[in-house]
Amino acid sequence: MCALQQERIGAFWIISASVAYGLMPIWTVIGQTNGLTTEFILFFRFGATSALLLIFALLKRIPVRLPKAKLLQFLFLGGILYTIQSFAYLESLKHIQAALSVLLYHIYPVIVTFAALAFFKERIQTKTLLALALCIIGLIVILQIPHSITLNYLGVALSLVGALFYGLYVIFSQSITRDCHSIVASFYVCLFAAFVMLFGALYSPLGIPNFLEISLSGIIALLGLTLFSTLFAMLAYFLGMPKIGITKTAILGMIEPLVAVVLSLWILGENLSALQYFGAFLILFGSLLLCIRH
Fold first, then answer.
1. Residue ranges of the alpha helices (H) in 23-152?
2. What pTM value is reported for the model?
3. Residue 134 sits in which domain range?
4. 8 Å CB contact between 256 and 18
5. Of 19, 65, 172, 193, which is most buried with the most CB atoms under 10 A?
6. Is the model's pLDDT at 84 over the cut of 90?
7. CA torsion 230→231→232→236, rounded to 10°?
8. How many domains does the chain have?
9. Which pLDDT tens digit goes with each residue over 148-194?
10. What are the residue ranges of helices labelled H in the chain?
11. 210-217 average pLDDT score
């Protein structure tokens, strides 16, 4: 198969993954409006995904056993960093518009860049400074809510906390997952996150709902979030990235927030002001520059 055809196939998988990830806030809001708690949504998502990944690994005869030291690292990665970022991001959707939350959350490349500059002594390039300036200005602009709307600062804070911990997750995952098969790494991240969210669901005021009492819309949201926006998205990403490389993957990955914002405006009936659209452009363009800064 020629290189061009391989690249097209890889681009198809990455675009598919980005669209699937972009649907995540839509599934979440539908589930929340149908009475499902964020804790239960995440427990179901991570629990079902880890089980399906384990089945996939066994069918492909991919070894899943890891040393205890590596398991502790994955406990930190999945049970703490990934769990906090997922919960904060999804919980923010209860307090602010999904489109706004998505845009705030995608400020995480700024966090990764600052960490790279501070701890890994990367050289500061002119393009990097420009990208950081665009993201910060965009963040300030997008928070200029019309006076007729009350801004929920808890939702803003939760979305930014999600961005912070996802940035930390990206930084630490580079070293922790370096020697692991991508399926195995995803399995343990989801497994430990599922255990943590199980306790969260059990001790939440509403507890774990009776499956027979979940509405059809809630069931569809859970299945869509788990099968399409998590399992399929993960596998599509892993199938596509080796074929087109990190830089092109990062570029096509910016489709995710665009899909999330457009669908939030369309399906959920949300709206942003003209000034916020400009701020959104600055954030997305700045994040794109940061993703391809090398």
1. 24-33, 38-59, 68-76, 83-92, 98-105, 108-119, 126-142
2. 0.84
3. 3-291
4. yes
5. 193
6. yes
7. 90
8. 1
9. 556 688 998 999 999 889 888 888 887 888 888 889 999 999 999 99
10. 3-22, 24-33, 38-59, 68-76, 83-92, 98-105, 108-119, 126-142, 153-176, 182-203, 216-223, 233-253, 255-267, 274-291
11. 82
